[in-house]
Write a structure and sequence with these properties.
455 residues, alpha/beta, D-Maltodextrin-Binding Protein, domain 2, 2 domains, 5-stranded mixed β-sheet, 20 helices, globular, disordered N terminus
Length: 455
């Protein structure tokens, strides 16, 4: 489904209602028909053609509140450029590939690092490098979190700017009512993982009516590595070419979950962990993204009648909290006939005000992940969100300064990597295997076989 704008002020409803009037092919024809002489201008008001249409291909639902705010504002600021979102339901990664094949991709595209989509598109020459444009405008890349910028670089070339981003799996939600009823001191920033383990054990009821902790050993690497980093473990080497699960640290990390599941039994391996906490049946929800879960936990606490609070995940044995940076990208299509105008829109969609608009979204189904910029996460408008307690916003901000990098297999064999990892995790979940040295060595060998595959 393709959604376009008009120059008039729009509500979200009128925005979506206009979708049926313009299709991808029609937008492509409009783009092809645009032209005209190039005028003079500086980096802030660049030389642009007259009445150029610039489209941005993106997903439909998750940023639905942002587009009707930032696109009309852009069109008012740059009257010679008409920005039009080209929004799609369903799998946006597959849709983007289909649009590229049909030569109908927008001038810009919102892409997703968790699938190595930005790298794949750049290596396939569907997206262009941005360094020349950055240098021309003397664009200060320190406006964004450094790990988000580094995610958009390959072989020394910048191919994406951060559209949004966060540090993943770095927060524990706490059922304050349950702790108070049990007479247990609430966890804080000084609580260790060992301390939290004892708290969870005390809160657990043998009949399964109440669990001390809702958490899980994740099957996908981005969340998995964020979790095992609390034990100072990694899934792969810094160059992302060598598996590193055959280590004492990795065995300790997996062993902690095995004991939590099957020996101390303060965690249910079969549970939907967010549901368990939202139902008021777990004392701790560990290793979650604030931006992803706060829109679920906050209203659930009201409907279920329990107080809650939150803090950063506890430090593991070596003082490391864990986490993994997860950004989204905005890229400039190599198919664009108007790259200068598209670049103006790209900068707009990665600026502070767009980052604030992303964080301020409120409609059902939207994402509240903010722009990947310190000036967004430190802005009073972010910290004093209309819907969420300030402590959650502060934790969202504070998570981002943890020194935990984003990573992908160097050959981008993500499905294969996750399949090997997930198979072993599933065995531990089901108590079909214990993370012994031989088990972890076999897993490490399987992961290494994946990393040895060609790109």
């Amino acid at each position: 489904m393709s959604v376009t704008t008009t120059r008039s002020p729009l509500t979200r409803r009128s925005w979506l209602a206009g979708a049926a009037h313009t299709g991808i092919a029609g937008a492509a024809l409009t783009l092809a028909a645009c032209g005209g002489p190039t005028g003079a201008g500086d980096a802030r008001q660049p030389a642009t053609k007259k009445d150029v249409v610039v489209r941005v291909t993106a997903r439909q639902a998750q940023e639905a509140d942002m587009w009707p705010i930032r696109i009309p504002a852009f069109n008012a600021q740059y009257p010679n450029i008409k920005a039009e979102p080209d929004l799609h339901a369903g799998d946006i990664i597959e849709k983007t590939a289909a649009l590229i094949a049909a030569n109908q991709l927008g001038d810009l595209a919102h892409t997703h690092f968790s699938n190595a989509q930005p790298q794949r598109l750049y290596l396939g020459k569907s997206m262009r490098e941005l360094d020349s444009l950055i240098a021309k405008d003397k664009l200060d890349l320190k406006q964004w979190y450094p790990m988000a910028i580094e995610a958009g670089r390959l072989d020394g070339k910048t191919f994406a700017l951060p559209f949004k981003g966060k540090m993943a799996a770095t927060v524990i939600f706490i059922n304050q009512s349950m702790f108070e009823q049990a007479g247990i001191k609430l966890p804080d920033l000084n609580t260790t993982l060992a301390d939290l383990t004892e708290m969870a054990t005390k809160l657990t009821r043998p009949d399964g009516s109440q669990w001390g902790m809702a958490s899980t050993l994740p099957k996908g690497d981005s969340q998995h590595v964020a979790s095992i980093r609390r034990h100072n473990a990694e899934t792969m080497s810094k160059d992302h070419k060598k598996a590193t699960l055959d280590t004492a640290e990795a065995r300790a990390a997996w062993g902690w979950w095995y004991e939590a599941f099957h020996k101390r039994k303060f965690m249910d391996p079969a549970a939907n962990v967010v549901d368990l906490f939202a139902q008021g049946r777990a004392g701790i929800l560990m290793g979650q993204d604030v931006s992803q879960q706060k829109s679920r936990i906050h209203p659930a606490s009201i409907s279920q009648g329990f107080k809650y609070t939150a803090t950063l995940v506890p430090k593991g044995p070596t003082g490391r909290r864990g986490g993994s940076w997860v950004p989204d990208a905005m890229q400039l299509s190599s198919q664009s006939m108007n790259p200068d105008e598209a670049w103006v829109l790209l900068k707009w969609l990665t600026d502070k005000e767009t980052g604030i608009a992303l964080a301020a979204q409120k409609s059902p189904g939207v994402s509240t992940t903010a722009g990947a910029r310190p000036d967004v996460y430190n802005d009073p408008r972010f910290l004093n969100h209309e819907l969420f307690p300030k402590i959650l916003q502060e934790l969202d901000r504070d998570s981002n300064v943890l020194p935990e990098v984003f990573q992908l297999p160097a050959n981008y064999k993500i499905p294969e990597f996750n399949a090997a990892l997930g198979k072993a995790v599933d065995q531990v979940w089901k108590n079909e295997a214990e993370p012994t040295p031989s088990f972890m060595k076999n897993l490490n060998d399987e992961i290494q076989n994946v990393l040895n595959l060609p790109m």
